[in-house]
Design goal:
The chain is of the alpha+beta class. The protein is built from 15 helices and 42 strands.
Length: 787
């Protein structure tokens, strides 16, 4: 199946789960410029301690550690210009985000780029001017690839900016750092390169170190509670002149977004530079064009913030009760129950029961029960298996499409909302890769929450439309006994072996294929790059008879070698030849609509009869009668034995693959050594005509000394083989007309040789006369007539 087909099926799965999964996937990092809760105004109890850096030739070793911290922070805040680059990663309950922050300070102006990439992609750029701050958003492809918006930016006064973000860009750190906010006693270590590292832990209480910084976290997370910090660890690297080289920070805090509480752990590495500092020219030109834009009045209160569609949807889904799920496509229907509990993102629980025999759960691990398949895998296991499969391949990042959750949020924010009392009707058009999803929701608004009445989605862009609907159910999804679920981590051997083959792009294997008395033995080498090549040493066995030859497939042609005989036939010529015979090459394209419809109709209890994972082994038994009548069971046994090995049984067909492993051998072909069968196209026409007519007429002629023979032979093979030959035999000037028949059946006899000579007719069968007598008798009759 092509990548595009796999991609579409992947997107289909995403579409089916959109109503349930999308809210979860974007909760933690749904960036907002305005928080949904205000932090009360007021001054901090503490402030960062700053002390002017000594100029007496002393070094950090000569000073108190708290003073060293104050010197380093003072030096940054009083620098005429500097630049910092922060790289980091944020681990939340449902997403891992890559972070890139860039801060440039020149005099009294500063430019700050804040970029995050991962499940959520978002960016904003702030320009601190002398009398205001201008802010614009950006479109993110990756942390290194951002397109900044060019429409009118938001304008804030300095006071309004500090109210939202808490701290000025001229400071070394957003945290309050002083003797009062540092826990325990910091440690100063001198490094081999002459630099110094100061390690400390800050008091995470909101009234201490994060007093100002919690405003920025609040603004970026859209939290409905003031962020609660649990841990802050910081290391500051300085040179002997107290100039900060870099700062490492580990911070853990809790936020609540759209009614869901979650913990984020972020690790940042911020590098400081003090020379060749310049603003980005294009960005500076953009902000200069809005130098006359007036900021908000300092005293203006922000308008009450209304809940957005995402908040409504995620809040409405936060319960353990089940929802009725219905999926239809043409005549295929899937029904079932789903439930989701989002109250604690550290312990999300999702359950689904489809068609009464397909069970899926995400809790402490992912569980799947599908007919005879009962498997489980932690997120770490799934990541490990994917890493082994794809980690070292150049296109591994393209193996699956990415969901742009930011675009989904934009689509939801553009939804239309019709209010009818306390009922809300929400309609949105979501764009996910090549799909469009018409989403419709009916939600009941209560005093402090939302309740889902029903929801539907029409998925377009995958062929025939797929319709999905959900509504509250009175039924419950029964608990499942997890003891019988096999852990997919035991398939490491399979993922690793396949991954090595994918990475190497060359493989070898021994193949034995048997059907009744017919056996094929093959040693196969294959190259899996863009120009796929295959070579096989083949041995064909049938009832004691054997034929061996070499076969190669390369450059869209077949190459056959038997001793000194070397023949080639292009696949194009082969297709033409088969077309002349009325045989069409099987299509390699797949109808996605049919695939989806078949999947939706499958009875997985009948399809997956057995699925067992052992120690470096995998055994599968599939019932294929649903797909093709009377096809029977397909049995597959895979194990790790000097490379991958597999035994496959389907009815009377048996296949064995051994020593499947990567190789370094290149497959080369000298085409000039092979005779092109395509040049014999004219001969193929004659052969095909004979095959179609099931008969052939052949002219005969020959002579020996004074004996001459000529005539015509007719061969017919419609049901059984019959041959007739009309012969004229002459010796000198004497002639005789003879008709010879070789009939598979004549007058109730089998395999009859019939000779008609003048009025004489002779029947010869194996049971009536032996071979030598028959030849003698025939010769006598012929020559007696010629005498």
């Amino acid at each position: 199946m092509s990548l595009s087909k796999r991609k579409k099926i992947f997107m289909l799965v995403c579409a089916i789960l959109t109503l349930i999964i999308v809210p979860v996937s974007i909760i933690m990092v749904a960036g907002q410029n305005k928080a949904s809760v205000d932090i009360e105004a007021g001054d901090a109890k503490f402030e960062t301690t700053l002390k002017e850096t000594p100029k007496d030739g002393t070094t950090p070793l000569d000073h108190d550690i708290y003073d060293n911290i104050a010197y380093a922070l003072w030096l940054v805040e009083n620098a005429e210009e500097f630049k910092t680059t922060t790289t980091g990663v944020s681990h939340a309950s449902v997403a891992t985000q890559q972070i890139l922050n860039e801060r440039v300070v020149k005099g009294k102006k500063a430019m700050i780029n804040t970029i995050t990439s991962g499940l959520i992609k978002q960016a904003n750029q702030k320009f601190w001017d002398e009398d205001k701050v201008l802010i614009r958003d950006g479109s993110v492809k990756s942390t290194a690839n951002v397109s900044w918006n060019t429409d009118t930016p938001e304008a804030l006064s300095h006071k309004g900016y500090l109210k939202r973000y808490g701290w000025k860009p001229f400071q070394a750190s957003a945290y309050i750092i002083s003797k009062d906010t540092i826990l325990n006693t910091p440690v100063l270590n001198q490094n081999p390169d002459g630099s110094f590292t100061i390690s400390m832990e800050l008091n995470p209480d909101g009234e201490y170190a994060p007093f100002y910084y919690k405003r920025e976290v609040l603004a970026n997370s859209g939290s409905s509670i003031v962020p609660r910090f649990q841990e802050i660890k910081m290391s500051i690297n300085i040179n002997s002149g107290w100039q900060i080289q870099y700062i490492d920070v580990l911070e853990v805090y809790e936020v609540k977004t759209m009614g869901i509480q979650a913990t984020s752990k972020t690790e940042n590495h911020e590098v400081f530079e003090y020379s060749n500092v310049e603003f980005d020219g294009q960005s500076l030109s953009y902000f200069d064009s809005y130098k006359d834009l007036k900021p908000k009045d300092d005293g203006e209160e922000d308008a009450p913030k209304k809940d957005d569609v995402l908040t409504m949807l995620t809040t409405a889904l936060q319960n353990e009760k089940a929802l009725d799920l219905n999926i239809t496509m043409n005549e295929a229907i899937v029904t079932g129950l789903v439930s989701i509990d989002l109250h604690d993102l550290e312990n999300i629980v999702f359950k689904g029961l489809l068609n009464e025999n397909i069970y899926i759960e995400y809790s402490d691990a992912l569980y799947l029960s599908l007919g005879g398949l009962k498997a489980k895998a932690s997120v770490e296991t799934l990541n490990s298996l994917l890493e082994k499969l794809l980690n070292n391949t150049p296109d591994s990042t393209k193996a699956a499409p990415q969901i742009d959750a930011g675009a989904i949020m934009d689509d939801l924010n553009n939804a239309t909302i019709v209010e009818d009392g306390n009922k809300l009707n929400i309609k949105a058009l979501l764009h996910i890769d090549t799909m469009e999803i018409e989403l419709a929701l009916d939600i009941l608004k209560t005093t402090d929450s939302y309740k889902l009445l029903n929801g539907s989605a029409r998925v377009m862009g995958l062929g025939d439309d797929i319709n999905v609907s959900i509504k509250p159910s009175l039924e419950l999804i029964p608990d499942v006994n997890k003891e019988g679920f096999m852990d997919l981590k035991n398939l490491d051997f399979l993922a690793e072996s396949i991954g090595e083959i994918i990475k190497n792009k060359k493989l070898s294997a021994n193949l034995t294929l048997g059907y009744n008395d017919f056996v094929v033995n093959a040693l196969i080498n294959a190259s899996l790059d863009k120009n796929m090549r295959l070579e096989a040493e083949l041995e064909l066995l049938y009832k004691g008879m054997s034929v061996d030859f070499n076969l190669k497939l390369a450059d869209n042609a077949l190459f056959i070698e038997k001793g000194n005989l070397k023949l080639m036939l292009s696949l194009t010529d082969l297709e033409k030849l088969l077309a002349k015979m009325g045989i069409e090459m099987p299509s390699m394209s797949l109808d996605l609509n049919n695939i989806i419809e078949v999947i939706l109709k499958l009875d997985f209890d009948e399809l997956i009869k057995e699925f067992n994972i052992g120690e470096e082994s995998l055994d599968i038994k599939l019932g294929l009668n649903q797909l093709i009548k009377d096809l029977g069971d397909l049995i597959i046994a895979v194990k790790n034995d000097n490379g991958l090995s597999a035994d496959i049984i389907l009815g009377g067909l048996k296949a064995s693959i051994t020593n499947l492993k990567p190789i370094a051998k290149d497959i080369t072909i000298n085409k000039e050594e092979y005779q092109n069968l395509g040049y014999l196209d004219f001969l193929f026409d004659d052969v095909i005509s004979i095959v179609k007519d099931k008969g052939v007429e052949v002219a005969l002629s020959g002579s020996y000394q004074n004996i001459a023979i000529d005539g015509t032979a007719y061969v017919v093979f419609r049901n059984k083989l019959d041959i007739r030959a009309d012969l004229n035999i002459s010796v000198d000037n004497n002639a005789l007309a003879v008709t010879v028949y070789l009939l598979s059946e004549y007058n109730g006899l089998s395999n009859v040789l019939l000779i008609s000579l003048s009025s004489i007719e002779i029947n010869i069968t194996p049971s009536s006369v032996n071979k030598s007598f028959a030849i003698f008798n025939l010769g006598y009759i012929i020559f007696s007539h010629l005498a």
